[in-house]
Design brief:
Radius of gyration of chain A: 17 Å
Number of helices of chain B: 32
Structural class of chain B: mainly alpha
Oligomer: heterodimer
Largest sheet of chain B: 2 strands, antiparallel
Number of helices of chain A: 5
Order of helices and strands of chain A: HHHHEEH
Largest interface: A-B, 53 and 43 residues
Shape of chain B: elongated
Number of strands of chain B: 2
Shape of chain A: flat
Distance between the termini of chain A: 13 Å
């Protein structure tokens, strides 16, 4: 789109960090401000920079999979996380938790189906935003 | 094995049928038939248990809070129907293997067919009213897919939609009827209804229950005046017609009436409604059939006529009538499936199905001719075929009636004469008439094995049933009659009852039918000159349909004019009015606000937002307006921060940023900004916006000191950590407490995404094409 070396380079350099940040936001959401919805938006904003700088074709190359697939995957994961409750003999969407363990950097880790559900939300929201973004960016005269 | 696994097994096969098609190629139908055959075997194994009077029950909780369970109840009636469905269903699958050989969508066809079979099995075995309704609707949907299978043809799509709308309309009525019945009886379980001494007829809701349930059953079973969709459903491929007309779909309505017979039938209204609609349908069907020359149409109208007979018998409701109903139902299922499959074979191998052209195929298609001949004799009611028995019982029922015996007997005889002539026309004439091979578009030859094995077996079964009614058929039918009547009915079927009045009537019918058949060429000559297509119910339906379409077009054009200004006006005035109305219902003005409670930072934020709004209103540049809108959004994020909602604030900031960027991508494609509104409209818009804004403000202030229900926020805060192990309440609510809502929201998001995508893509490709 715009041919600016500064923007191009910034977008390239920032994308991995923005994606990492979005994952952090996703993960911390359970105890601190954040979560799948915000994380998904943050991930998408990384690609916005990429579309504005290096361009839509490059952005698609970096993303590798279609945004539609992201949406589908997100819905599948969210719905699937609810099914785990049924398999465990409880009701649909009942929360299941693993016993906590400690990891370097992350500290005490407590994994459960709500996090899985939130990952689905993250993917669906990111997919939706990217789908809209790409579609709008690809309008030609 | 149990009923549920039976249904699930067939559903599973439905799901993987297209894959199996790739694996087994042109033998898939034979492989898939294993499903219904296994079910048939399992149901047959239940026969001794069920004959002894016990019913098989199974129940799985579905919505226990609402009393809805996925429960099954197999008694004599269910068993008889399930045997017919699974037995005939397996032959239909084999037949479809040959009939649609080489069709690119054959795998999908199997899927639809299996889905349909599974939902039919569900209807006849369901114990819960709601579960029955769900299966009922599933048959409507799958039959829509089946009837419209040749979807390239507009006419075929129209007819499929017609069947869906007519039966769907009945379905809605049925649902309401079921709910009322459930409320009246305080139980959703059919077996409880049948086994308790509850009788709906004393209940105040009875007229409504009866009307609604009859609407559902009559539309499904194509009773006059809803009969028109059934002949139109002939647009379907032959295997579908054979299945729909013999053991399924239309029989679902009859089954429902039979199922609820013990609960609903002890009133005059029931008797009158069923007998009168049944009698009219009988006559309308058989007379219309006489005027047809299309092989499948002839058969379709005879189905109508038979459905009329069955409904009438249920309406009469004597033990004898119920017995006749079951005998007739079984006989009809056997010969009608055969005749439809044979008609399909004729169509398939010769390219036509007009009886004025198709004739004398006995040497070209010997096996099909044999099957069709046997079935036609059964349908015509020649002894010793099973159809003879059915007809005898109908006459017997008519004779032993206390009232109106003569009228009913008379109509039954006329209908049976017509039916017999039609049977010969559809099953004998194409094969045994004068040879006419030159007029056919294709050189006729025998159909493949897959297409005559089913008809032959079914036709022979009809003969076998007629030869040994006492030892083979009685054990099958007597538990069913027991279930329909609600009390044990002792009987043994026999084909020979000595010289009596029914036999005389039968002889009369045979003579009448043969005479009509001999005159067939003259009748066709007369009917070819008549124009019958003017005053039909089909046209009435189309009129209604087009009326609906034009009304919705008209109101859509008013509400969705395409002007954004109009849209906003409608949306905001509606919501503003509703809010104001609701607010006026709560008395008392909001408590006085102490504006000086606000901090300096609050004031600054408010000014910031107001400044943004002023900029938007005043500016003449889209870019400035957009950026100012962003400012307003950030101001609101600031409010969230000030009042301790960091999650909301982050979301707001991200959304605002994204919106501004996305807008940017589009905005420079728009034409230059022009101010087209007059000062008068601007003034009006200002007042309007101010009023709606004031209402919203009032609502917010009022909401502060209204307590409609106890608040949950405190509880959620506590549970968040103790139950859901999370410190961020907002997130815990989103992903745990109210996860189902969130799932709904992201689903909406996905649908909206697809909408945005197709909208923009569509526009984009259109532009490219015009270039």
């Amino acid at each position: 789109m715009m041919n600016s070396i500064i923007l191009n380079t910034t977008a390239r350099l920032l994308l991995p960090w923005l994606l990492l940040l979005s994952l952090v936001i996703l993960y911390r959401g359970h105890n601190l401000p954040g979560g799948g919805f915000i994380g998904g938006l943050a991930a998408a904003s990384g690609f916005i920079l990429y579309v504005l700088g290096p361009g839509i074709d490059k952005a698609r190359q970096v993303l590798k999979i279609h945004p539609e697939t992201l949406i589908g995957l997100g819905l599948l994961i969210s719905m699937g996380s609810g099914l785990l409750g049924i398999i465990a003999g409880k009701s649909y969407m009942a929360g299941l938790w693993m016993t906590g363990f400690t990891l370097p950097l992350l500290g005490k880790v407590h994994l459960g189906t709500p996090l899985l559900f939130d990952i689905g939300v993250y993917l669906a929201v990111a997919g939706f935003t990217l789908l809209t973004l790409f579609a709008l960016a690809e309008i030609k005269e | 094995m149990n009923t549920l696994t039976c249904i699930l097994f067939i559903l599973l096969l439905a799901g993987i049928a297209p894959q199996l098609q790739k694996l087994f190629g042109n033998k898939t139908g034979w492989v898939l038939a294993i499903g219904p055959i296994l079910c048939f075997a399992w149901f047959l194994k239940l026969l001794p248990t069920i004959s002894s009077g016990t019913a098989i029950e199974q129940s799985i909780d579905w919505f226990p809070q609402l009393g809805v369970a996925l429960s099954f109840y197999v008694d004599g009636l269910s068993l008889l129907m399930a045997l017919l469905i699974s037995g005939i269903g397996s032959f239909i699958l084999i037949y479809a293997n040959g009939y649609l050989q080489g069709h690119p969508l054959q795998g999908k066809f199997y899927s639809y067919l299996m889905l349909f079979t599974a939902s039919m099995l569900g209807i006849v075995t369901a114990d819960n009213l709601i579960a029955l309704f769900v299966f009922w609707e599933l048959t409507s949907i799958s039959s829509y897919l089946l009837i419209g299978f040749y979807h390239e043809s507009g006419e075929s799509r129209r007819k499929a939609l017609q069947a869906l709308l007519v039966t769907g309309f009945g379905g809605v009525a049925l649902m309401a009827g079921f709910i009322l019945l459930g409320l009246a009886s305080e139980s959703w379980s059919i077996s409880e209804l049948l086994n308790s001494d509850f009788s709906a007829s004393n209940h105040t809701l009875y007229p409504a229950i009866l009307t609604l349930i009859l609407l559902g059953a009559f539309t499904k079973s194509a009773q006059w005046p809803f009969h028109f969709w059934l002949p139109n459903a002939m647009a379907a491929p032959a295997p579908v017609s054979a299945f729909l007309h013999s053991a399924t779909m239309v029989k679902a309505g009859v089954f429902l009436l039979a199922r609820l017979n013990p609960v609903l039938s002890d009133t005059l209204a029931w008797t009158l409604a069923l007998t009168s609609f049944g009698l009219v349908t009988m006559l309308v069907g058989s007379i219309n059939g006489l005027l047809q020359t299309d092989l499948k149409k002839i058969l379709a109208y005879t189905t109508l006529s038979v459905l009329g007979i069955l409904v009438m018998l249920l309406g009469l409701g004597t033990d004898l009538a119920l017995k006749s109903c079951m005998v007739f139902l079984v006989g009809h299922a056997l010969y009608k499936a055969t005749l439809f499959m044979c008609a399909g074979s004729v169509d398939h191998e010769t390219g036509v199905r007009d009886v004025t052209i198709v004739s004398g195929l006995r040497f070209a298609m010997p096996f099909t001719a044999l099957a069709a001949g046997l079935a036609a004799f059964s349908k015509a009611g020649f002894p010793p075929f099973f159809g003879f028995l059915g007809k005898e019982y109908v006459y017997k029922t008519g004779m032993y009636l206390e009232d109106y015996s003569h009228i009913i007997l008379g109509i039954a005889i006329v209908t049976n004469i017509l039916l017999m002539a039609l049977a010969l026309k559809a099953g004998i004439h194409p094969f045994w008439g004068k040879e006419n091979a030159k007029a056919l578009p294709k050189n006729p030859h025998e159909a493949p094995l897959s297409m005559y094995i089913g008809p032959i077996i079914l036709a022979l079964t009809g003969l076998l049933f007629g030869l040994f009614p006492g030892s083979i058929v009685t054990p099958l039918i007597s538990p069913a009659v027991h279930a329909v009547a609600g009390h044990p009915v002792e009987f043994t079927l026999a084909i020979w009852h000595g010289f009596n009045l029914p036999l005389l009537f039968s002889a009369l019918t045979l003579i009448g039918g043969l005479v009509l058949y001999a005159l067939r060429h003259r009748i066709w000559k007369i009917t070819s000159t008549l124009s019958l297509n003017k005053w039909t119910f089909d046209n009435l339906y189309m009129g209604l349909f087009n009326g609906f379409v034009s009304v919705s077009k008209w109101q859509t054009q008013i509400l969705q004019s395409g002007s954004l200004r109009r849209y906003l006006l409608i949306i905001f005035s509606t919501s503003g009015f509703l809010l104001a109305y609701k607010l006026s219902l709560f008395d008392g003005l909001p408590r006085q606000l102490d504006l000086f409670e606000a901090r300096l930072l609050d004031w600054a934020t408010v000014l910031f937002i107001l400044g943004g709004i002023c900029m938007i209103v005043k500016t003449h540049s889209r870019m400035t307006a957009l950026l100012s809108l962003g400012l307003v959004g950030f101001g609101i994020a600031m409010v969230f921060i000030l009042y301790g909602a960091p999650d909301l604030a982050i979301t707001q900031i991200l959304v605002e940023t994204l919106i501004v960027v996305l807008f940017m991508l589009v905005i420079y494609r728009l034409p230059a900004f022009r101010d087209l509104s007059s000062n008068k409209t601007k003034f009006f818009d200002g007042i309007f916006a101010g009023t709606v804004g004031a209402i919203i403000t009032l609502l917010v202030i009022k909401a502060q000191n209204l307590e409609i229900a106890p608040t949950v926020s405190g509880q959620f805060g506590e549970w968040s950590y103790t139950l859901a192990k999370g410190k961020n309440v907002v997130n815990v609510i989103l992903v745990d407490f109210r996860a189902l809502d969130t799932l709904g929201e992201i689903t909406v998001l996905a649908i909206a995404g697809v909408g945005v995508f197709t909208l923009i893509r569509g526009q984009f490709t259109k532009k490219r094409k015009t270039k």
